[in-house]
């Protein structure tokens, strides 16, 4: 009888231990924190009209870009609102050799400008933890014209432009994404480059400074599964002696699939290099002077971007 009682007590203790172990495991499973995942698709493309977005494609992604800007719409029907006017075009290719890094190369029609770029995702927005994504974008370009008419390239290094930008973005829900991007553009050769006359000792001011600060504000709002509205504004900050660039106001639509993105828009930038746009934009989004008379309305151009991704 004693042996039977002892066996019963032992079985009860073993059963309680097993139940406690299961409860402890359940508690551990419940309390184990879930790792926060980055927010997806803050923007659909690496481009938002004339600017780069915060997005960096995954490792192994290869991209081809076609960017086109027509002439200004100010002449109306005479050149069919700029569609038959002189235009600018850029062909580019990019590749992600590792996660968070995107490398690109391209050439555009204006000044036969070659460019190389690098883009790195520093911080990614996560739900409930990190409120914004931050990406660095850098571009260096080389004017490859054989016989430049401006006569400003004394040295080969005078042909070089550079652009550095920090992109800060946040996705608000499933439809709205906004970003702000301060930038620094640099030109090695300054327009009207005269420093000192050796015979007279006089100094002639430079028309522009070498460095130029600007700020870009961009937004995207989804109006359908594959369609979105785009808005972009670029504000020059640095003031030069003369030839101050105009701001850029652009708005349009984006149509996307899993591998393609097509953006159709109107804006003031006709150049397709970020440094040159920031430094030399001659088109005004507001009223402007033409032959001494004030003209209402802006100097807008129609443009489009096409991107194709493989990954």
Rg over CA atoms, rounded to whole Å, is 28 Å
- Strand element count: 16
* Main pleated sheet: 12 strands, antiparallel, barrel
Mean pLDDT: 86
CATH class category label: Mainly Beta
Second rung of CATH, namely the architecture? Beta Barrel
From the 3D structure, determine the CATH topology.
Porin
Number of domains in the coordinates?
1
Order of helices and strands: HEEEEEEEEEEEEEHEEE
Q: What share of residues are in beta strands?
A: 35-45%
- CATH homologous superfamily descriptor: monomeric porin ompg
- Order of strands in the sheet with the most strands? 3-4-5-6-7-8-9-10-11-12-13-16
Helix content: 10-25%
* Shape verdict: globular
Task: Enumerate the spans where pLDDT stays under 50 for 5 or more consecutive residues.
Answer: 1-29
Structural class: mainly beta
Tally of individual helices: 2
Question: Cα distance, first to last residue?
Answer: 75 Å
Structural account:
- With 311 residues, the chain is mainly beta.
- It has a single domain, classed as monomeric porin ompg (Porin).
- It is 12% helix and 43% strand.
- It has a 12-stranded antiparallel beta barrel.
- A hairpin with a 3-residue loop joins strand 12 and strand 13.
- The chain is globular and about 65 Å long.
- The N terminus is likely disordered.
Helix and strand topology:
Layout: H1 2-31, E1 47-48, E2 51-52, E3 62-72, E4 88-95, E5 101-108, E6 113-123, E7 133-143, E8 160-172, E9 176-187, E10 211-222, E11 227-236, E12 248-256, E13 260-267, H2 274-280, E14 288-290, E15 293-295, E16 301-310
Antiparallel strand pairs: 1-2, 3-4, 3-16, 4-5, 5-6, 6-7, 7-8, 8-9, 9-10, 10-11, 11-12, 12-13, 13-16, 14-15
